[in-house]
Design a protein that fits this description.
The complex is a heterodimer of chains A (about 140) and B (about 425). Chain A is of the alpha+beta class and about 140 residues long. In chain A, about 35% of the residues lie in helices and about 35% in strands. Chain B is globular and about 70 Å long. The chains are: A alpha+beta (about 140), B alpha/beta (about 425).
């Protein structure tokens, strides 16, 4: 599974910029990101080329960081593509905590990051339904 | 208008004599009946007969909040429990509260003091006094109530809360005097306006406001908005409750009733008595209380004393409006909050580390307490919902522990300043 790095951020000017700066200085590349925010705080979620190092560097820089398992799913890059995947998941009763789109793509497909409640169940479903998802190494190397 | 002219306007010389006589009596009494006082005086090498002048009291050891805790609940009482007719306590919640006991005469004394205070605010037997302090263990409600009854006013024991009903009672019953915290007075005004009721529709003339520090600015705000005379009433549970001191109509300092309380101002760091007029920590010796006398009690309140004669004719010394606390305790909406209480509550939430900061602000009319809590890796989640649940859990714990509503803000680790090993725990933005 793909490792996502999550960082706790206060909703303050300049806080967001500091994370990419720290990672950039360490030569770590950000592949995908999303921010969930409330009025008081935000959670920055990152897919990077080297999660263990990113985790370590951010932690050393004083951030609250966690590693989470997510899935990088290939979604047909055409109208209704994402809807089809979501419907399959809904039918199977797979709970999605959140999802966000990948910045770059590999082929004619789009890549969507899914955080699901039960990764193993989702993986089984995807295999059964012929929905492709990427191995961690493939994602980090993108 | 005076409640007890003979006492309130007693010539200073006679007042000093009375104070000395009562101090001597009190010191003899605590030495005889309260083991803790006897031990402390013996350690300090002071005997009751060493107190021959008013200045001599500076040789007596201080009594602190810690002494109260060490002797919890009744260890400092100077009478058997059969003589105690009432027990009140402070809002201390996670730690042990401060407990005060009263004999029948203490209750009468207290009523007299509040009667003087209400008279200073122009109340009389013809007045209708609405007591919107909480009734119960808190001294505000019952203290104001007994004083108002003492002067023969009609008392409305509305207690705190249900503000729309407070306004309705005020209007329907023709309340002339209001007793509550100053912030609640302003809150009542806001609610009143939202009900489309104007101060002109009321008979309200004055209020005695206390239990939390407030500024001259706030006084003028209350006076302008509610069109009343706003009087600061000072007191604390340990001393007796509200009524230790009160603004007269001149409002140039609060008269401390010296026939019952002997004030001193000390340097909070060295404990040395400071000359008249200096600013420092207020120390009070109670000289008439029977059940729970206090010798040189360190109030932690910062103020100064003015012995100049007052235009009102009262001879009792005036203390400046309290400027602040010499320790970290804050009073929020009448409730005492110690950072240590917040800390012990936070530590009960699994995974939360004791990195926190209390920020008190006055938002409009009410005190707001916001508590910043650093998010540790143990409690961090990549899901907003889980962090919001954590926030809610911390808030619930704090609210039930402190007894007041609070706001919780989760902040980044290390964002709360740590200086010289001792973290700054409180930021008071009320500018009091």
């Amino acid at each position: 599974m793909v490792k996502q790095i999550s960082v706790f951020l206060e909703n303050k000017a300049g806080r967001l910029a500091s994370v990419p700066r720290v990672l950039g200085n360490a030569g770590i590349n950000i592949r995908a990101l999303s921010i969930a925010d409330t009025s008081d705080f935000g959670i920055l979620r990152l897919i990077v080329n080297d999660p263990p190092r990113a985790y370590q560097i951010l932690k050393e820089s004083g951030y609250t960081v966690s590693e989470t398992e997510v899935m990088a799913v290939r979604v047909p890059d055409s109208p209704g593509g994402l809807a089809g995947v979501l419907e399959v998941m809904a039918e199977a009763g797979i709970n999605i905590e959140y999802l966000y789109a990948f910045i770059g793509t590999t082929s004619e497909d789009a890549l969507v990051i899914f955080k699901v409640e039960n990764v193993d169940e989702a993986a089984k479903l995807f295999i059964a339904k012929g929905i492709q998802f990427l191995e961690d190494k493939e994602v980090y190397a993108l | 208008m005076y409640w007890d002219k003979e006492m309130e306007c007693m010539p200073r010389e006679k007042l000093e004599e009375l104070k000395l006589r009562r101090i001597k009596e009190t010191v003899f009494r605590v030495y005889a009946f309260v083991p803790s006082y006897r031990e402390k005086m013996d350690t300090a090498g002071v005997k009751p007969q060493d107190i021959q002048t008013l200045e001599d009291i500076q040789y007596l050891p201080f009594t602190t909040k810690q002494d109260l805790r060490d002797n919890y609940p009744f260890g400092l009482f100077a009478v058997p429990m059969s003589e105690v007719v009432r027990i009140q306590s402070s809002s201390g919640t996670t730690g042990k509260p401060t407990v005060a006991g009263y004999t029948r005469r203490d209750i009468l004394t207290w009523s007299e003091l509040v009667a003087r205070a209400l008279t200073c605010a122009g109340a009389s037997r013809h007045s209708i006094v609405q007591v919107a302090y909480g009734y119960g263990l808190f001294t505000g409600g019952l203290g104001a109530h007994y004083g108002a009854e003492r002067i023969g006013a009609s008392v409305i024991p509305s207690s705190g809360g249900n503000t729309q009903r407070q306004v309705m009672l005020m209007q329907d019953f023709g309340t002339t005097h209001l007793a509550c915290t100053p912030s609640y007075a302003l809150f009542i005004y806001d609610v009143m306006r939202s009900m489309n009721i104007s101060p002109e529709d009321l008979k309200l003339r004055a209020g005695i406001f206390g239990a939390e520090p407030w500024t001259e600015n706030m006084r003028s705000e209350i006076e302008t908005k509610l069109r009343i005379s706003a009087h600061d009433i000072y007191g604390m549970t340990e001393l007796i409750g509200p009524g230790v001191a009160i603004d007269c109509s001149c409002k140039e300092g609060l008269h401390i009733w010296e026939d019952h309380f002997v004030p001193e101002i000390i340097d909070p760091d060295t404990g040395k008595v400071l000359p008249p007029g200096s600013e420092g920590e207020l120390v009070i010796t109670t000289i008439t209380k029977e059940a729970f006398p206090l010798i040189r009690y360190r109030t932690r309140d910062l103020t100064s004393l003015n012995y100049e004669p007052c235009k009102c004719g009262r001879t009792h010394v005036r203390m400046k409006k309290v400027k602040g606390r010499s320790d970290d305790m804050i009073i929020v909406r009448g409730v005492n909050v110690f950072p240590s209480m917040v800390e012990s509550i936070l530590l009960r939430v699994p995974g939360v580390e004791p990195h926190y900061l209390l920020i008190v602000e006055r938002d409009g009319t009410l005190d707001e307490l916001e508590i910043l809590v650093e998010v540790s890796e143990k409690v961090f989640s990549d899901e907003v919902r889980k962090l919001e649940e954590l926030n809610k859990l911390i808030r619930k714990e704090l609210e039930s522990g402190l007894g007041i509503a609070v706001k919780v803000r989760l902040v980044e680790p290390g964002s709360i300043e740590r200086s010289e090993g001792k973290a700054k725990r409180v930021v008071d933005k009320r500018n009091l």
